[in-house]
Write a structure and sequence with these properties.
alpha+beta; 4-stranded mixed β-sheet; 8 helices; 16% strand
Length: 178
């Protein structure tokens, strides 16, 4: 079976379970943090994939990787995934859960990268522009001097890269391969 299908089905089922318990937002934060642990510690996935490690140890390992006291809902979700031998898909399930959550809550993630901090007026205008179609916008702004100038705007899966660094790279490629 396709890994994407497995992850999506688990994410939808987990969301429904968490929504019934009114803990879908809390679970989102816990799974997001756990997903970040997989990126910062690649040996975590290797340990979880090891068939010689007992199920209880894997659950304890995941609970520890969460870094803090996790909710009962999260504990049950982790136990289910480990028990069903789907621990290999856990990071993918966590990422899919975030998408399912955002779709259910009609939430749009907007990221803006500029060289200088964005003014509150600019932030408000961007949020209002997107908010006409969606009810909630989660706005993240950061600065990055490496882009030289311009901006990078991401709205969910869409990306508008209007930074000077990208334009210079495109120009360089055109000069190399006319």
């Amino acid at each position: 079976m396709d890994a994407g299908i497995i992850s999506h089905r688990y994410a939808k089922a987990i969301y429904q379970f968490a929504a019934e318990r009114k803990e879908e937002s809390l679970l989102r934060e816990e799974l997001k943090f756990l997903s970040e642990q997989f990126l910062s510690c690649p040996s975590l996935q290797k340990a979880l994939d090891d068939p010689t490690i007992p199920m209880t140890v894997k659950i304890d390992l995941l609970t520890t990787a969460a870094g803090r006291e996790i909710s009962e809902t999260c504990k049950k979700v982790l136990h289910l995934i480990v028990k069903n031998k789907r621990v290999h898909y856990l990071q993918s399930v966590a990422l899919r859960y975030d998408k399912v959550y955002r779709k259910a809550k009609d939430l749009v993630i907007m990221k803006l990268v500029t060289t200088e901090p964005a003014s509150s007026e600019m932030k408000n205008k961007l949020v209002d522009l997107v908010k006409k179609k969606n009810e909630q916008v989660e706005f993240n702004a950061k600065t990055d001097a490496d882009i030289i100038g311009g901006f990078i705007l991401e709205i969910d899966d869409l990306r508008l890269d209007a930074c000077v660094k990208n334009l210079l790279n495109q120009l360089r490629l055109e000069l190399i391969h006319p």
